[in-house]
Amino acid sequence: MSKRSSLVAPPARLLLPALLVLVLGGCQTTSLEDVTGALGVGGKSEPAAMADARPDMDALRERYRAKPSDPNIALDYGKALRETGQRAQAVAVMEQAVLTHPSNKALLAGYGRALADNGNFQQAFDVLSRAHTPEDPDWRILSAQGAALDQLGRNEEAQQYYATALKIVPDEPQVLSNLGLSYTLQNNLPRAEETLRRAYQRNPANSRVRGNLALVLGLEGKQAEAEAIVKADLPPDQAAAKVTALRELLSKKQQQRAEK
Fold first, then answer.
1. Each residue of 42-81: pLDDT tens digit?
2. In this predicted model, what pLDDT tens digit does every residue of 187-220 receive, in sequence order?
């Protein structure tokens, strides 16, 4: 291992909880993940977004209680629960729906994503594997399977899933973003940067792609460029908040490295 690799290795290994937020876009609760999530979401803060969703949640809850066996209602309700951070409840709703409709591919996909949001990565991968077939692959599910494998530490396998997804949708920013994070977890920061730049070129307006690229650039010591990317096309107050979040995250990474 080179001297540069040995210096990069500790923070990259410690990035996993933060990267989960960027891959899945989940609503997390711990302070480190909240900082990282601030780079991955745009517009309103999480509490404001959740508050706006509550009226819809009330209506969805009533619809679900009236027709719990309706697969479309269960799917909509489970998705809303995930988006408002109610991860365990989303799993319960989707699990019940899949038990009632075991061959429904959309429900299986929703159940797999709910499991991943809740940290059940191996089970999520297994369920997602049932949500499509080799004869009818779904690039979104392939990318989600790759993300689950990355979170299980199986990075090379994950990259095979991303490669398959990219054969279906070449240069899809969402897949490239996940692939770039996978390389980051392997401490391959130059390749991570190259991949995330491709994602950024394809969709520079995507705040999650911007956040992921900025994170890798920051780890490489390219702080000025990282901050410029984070601030792109944002109002001054949001730009300042995201730059602060990036600086705090990188500072914590440096502190964790120093403690090793």
1. 333 344 444 454 548 889 999 999 999 999 999 999 999 9
2. 899 999 999 999 999 998 888 898 889 989 998 9
Q: DSSP code of 101?
A: S
Report the Cα 103 to chain-centroid distance in Å. Answer: 26
Sign of the torsion angle spanned by Cα atoms 106, 109, 114, 117: negative
Q: In whole numbers, what is the pLDDT of the chain averaged over residues?
A: 80
Q: Is this structure's pTM higher than 0.85?
A: no
Cβ neighbours for 103, distance < 8 A, ≥ 6 positions apart: none
DSSP string for residues in 16-72: HHHHHHHHH-----SHHHHHHHHHH--SS-HHHHHHHHHHHHHHHHHHHHH-TT-HH
b/e burial code for range 179-210 (CB count within 10 A of at least 16 → b)? bbbbbbbbbbbeebbebbbbbbebbeebbbbb
SS3 content of the chain, % helix, strand, coil (to 5): 75, 0, 20
Contact 137, 162 (CB under 8 A): no
Residue 37 has pLDDT above 70, yes or no: no
Provide φ and ψ at 26, rounded to 5°: -75, 165
Cα angle, residue 145 at apex, residues 156 and 124 outer, rounded to 5°? 125
Answer yes or no: are the C-beta atoms of 220 and 5 closer than 8 Å.
Answer: no
